[in-house]
Amino acid sequence: MTARRRPRRARRGDLLSELQRDLRPVARPNILVLLWRWRWELALFPCLPIGLTVLMTRIGWIWSPAVMGITAVTFAWPDARYWLVARARCVITAHRVRTGCAQAWIQSRSGKLPTILLTTPRPCGERVYIWCRAGICLEDFQEATHILRSACWASDTYITSSTRYSHVVILDVIRYQSVDQGQQQR
Q1: Rounded distance, CA 96 to CA 175, Å?
Q2: Which residues contact residue 15 at a Cβ distance below 8 angstroms, ignoring those fewer than 6 apart?
Q3: What is the pLDDT of residue 179?
Q4: Which CATH number fits domain 92-186: 1.10.260.40, 3.30.980.40, 1.10.8.60, 3.40.50.2000?
Q5: 37 FRET partner, CA 20 to 30 A, in 9, 50, 118, 152?
């Protein structure tokens, strides 16, 4: 007959801080934070039509088919298309990581989410550099790996800490395996 062990109780302070974290909603961002989060969209959508209009007035409307042809060739060129898709995925991934942090309650006690500093394309996905506010640590991200993976539409995620700065978390979003990784696993 085996003796049953009593489940270990958490300390009172841990329970209260966990309850406070779970009940606190995500704080509403101020206008500067919103401008930072949506900087690419705010720059692209108003500036693209204005830029095309200025270009057409400078070179003349008669050259507009040539400009449209150059644009079509750019989208038909595989390297340019890959570059554009990779940059678009970086913007989308930043928004999805922020949503995943909100859903996984990765936030400070005041309800503030971590700041996404930079998102860069990688051969098999994206790499996200995240600035952790006071009260947020690497372990919070490691506990929420499955939520972040689902939020980013990824097949896997790897979470590490920066070797230089302990408050910067590096999240690798793996969308697909590269050919080299697939051959190494066989």
Answers
A1: 13
A2: none
A3: 53
A4: 3.30.980.40
A5: 50
Write out the two tokens for 22: 């779970």
Q: pLDDT by residue (tens digit) across 115-164?
A: 899 999 998 889 999 999 888 888 889 998 999 999 888 888 999 998 89
Residues of the chain with pLDDT under 70: 1-25, 27, 34, 37, 61-64, 67, 178-186
Q: Is the pTM of this model over 0.90?
A: no
Residue type, 158: Y
Q: Which residues pair with 55 in a beta bridge?
A: none
Tokens 């690798």 found at: 172
What do you get for the CA distance between the two ends of the chain, in Å?
A: 46
Burial of 63 (0-12, 13-18, 19+ CB in 10 A): middle
- Please check whether residue 97 is in contact with residue 144, taking contact to mean a CB–CB distance below 8 angstroms: no
Which of 182, 97, 183, 177 has its CA nearest to residue 144? 97
